[in-house]
Automatic annotation (TrEMBL), chain A:
This is Sugar ABC transporter permease. Belongs to the binding-protein-dependent transport system permease family. The chain crosses the membrane at residues 9-31, 69-93, 105-129, 141-159, 180-202, 239-260. GO terms for cellular component: plasma membrane. It comes from Knoellia aerolata DSM 18566. It is a multi-pass membrane protein.
UniProtKB/TrEMBL annotation, chain B:
It comes from Knoellia aerolata DSM 18566. InterPro entries: ABC_transporter_permease (IPR051393), MetI-like (IPR000515), MetI-like_sf (IPR035906). GO terms for cellular component: plasma membrane. This is ABC transporter permease. Keywords: Cell membrane, Membrane, Transmembrane, Transmembrane helix, Transport. PROSITE patterns: ABC_TM1.
Amino acid sequence: MNRSASGKWWLYAILSVAVVIVSAPFVWMVVGSLKTTSELRRSPPTWLPENATLDNYSQLFSRLDFGTYFFNSTVVAVVVTVGNLLFCSMLGYALAMLDFPGKKALFGVVMATLLIPGVVTFVPLFVLVANAGLVDTLPGLMLPFLAAPFGVFLMRQFILGLPRDLLDAGRVDGAGELRIFARIFLPLCGPALATLGILTFLGSWNNFLWPLVVAQTEQTYTLPVALALYSKGQNATNYGLLLAGATVVVVPVLLVFLAFQRRVIEGIATTGIK
Amino acid sequence: MLALPFCLLFLVFTVWPVLQSLFMSITDTRAKDLRTPFSVDFVGLDNYTRALSDENFLRAVRNTAYFVLVGVPLTLTLALAAAVALDRGISRFRSAFRLGFYTPVVTSIVAVAVVWQFLLNREFGLINTVLGWVGISGPNWLGDPDWAMPALIMMASWRNFGTGMIIFLAGLQAVPWALHEAASIDGASAWQRFRHITLPMLRPTMLFVSVTTMIGYLQFFEEPFVMTNGGPLDSTVSMSLYTYRQFGFGNYGYAASLSYLIFVVVAIVTALQFRALREKE
């Protein structure tokens, strides 16, 4: 099989063209962000920037407030990620290793909500957050996402694969339940925690509908909200600025993803096929 | 005790809103009722009957159906083609190709929508420039009611086929190579082997990928929000975008009922797909 497979040069050619097509929008985005808007409006387009300039970026961070949006996106994503790692591993562990009344029902309810679209809950969630006075605050952006069912599923599946003897051994040695979880099981969950952490971080960074509803002034905008609103406002035809903005949104996650791509791809594959 | 923190958050921010949403959908709650929650009236199923006769909502339903019925098969085909090519066709650079195809999935839809809006520009967009090389005069993608939706579908398929590809690749591991070899000795062509061995064995994976892709596409929102604002001539208003607009107008009760209708569609479609793919076994 390998002999015949490596001889298929035409398949390599097709796949290479496909990769070029798939990555072209990103290349075009980065190259475009270095051009002036008047150059971007030219037809036919120029390939490389005539006078490469970082002017678009300096505008983003001086005239517009992308520094703040970047900060907001980062804080929200980090807190949401830490919250999920903590809460989902705790419940995942309890569901996998411990016996308590209502365990099956709890797992069923949590799994059932996996299917519920975010659009179903945002209206009452907004009312809830508004009544708590958290509209237009960072906690308002984070709170609803601190404990997501997906993480419970992922952690439970992983912990089910760990030996139960560890639990008994810990109990025999007289360790408390919390200690058994934190000192024995949690350190063994490294791979699952890494996968969950990255997927949660990416999800939070790219999240849009909820921040769009809750962030109402520029102080609490996250990057996607700011970018979406600028792309419709008075900067709508300032293509250089928008492409630079998109680059600022995309490049950090691309770097995180490239650094941890194995974990992400394995995570998708294992949770995908059960 | 370990379950407590999650359960509290889960109760407040997931279970309660789901129930509250159902409750709101049978009331006439509006934005101004936030401060006076007892002034809302029950209206029974009025919101739902209103939705089913709301020409604008029905338009959004048809647009969403278009997006799903064309977008899901296209995305699945691309995903499966990439997975099969990477699984059996080549032996080197497999992970590099896999990475290249998967990358769009992790990026923000808002950001790629902004970039695509530029790519799709009629005069100086990259897509029409490339089409021009082969003598095709590209349409005014996002400005033409007939072409705006195909453009959104193209972008969504580009962004999302990587997920399906990864899951198909995992599923293909379960297809025994010995079967392929036996069939090819019996004179079966590559296409016949794909059709009669690979496809049937991939059925569970296919089910999973089509259900998750469809659930995602039924809720598409960012693409029209950023790229077309639902236009031109409402040709790209999706159910989620319409729901968001009603919420923006302060019609909370009505928006809640619309969101429940989306939920019902998601649930029905999922159940139907499970049945359709199970029955063939």
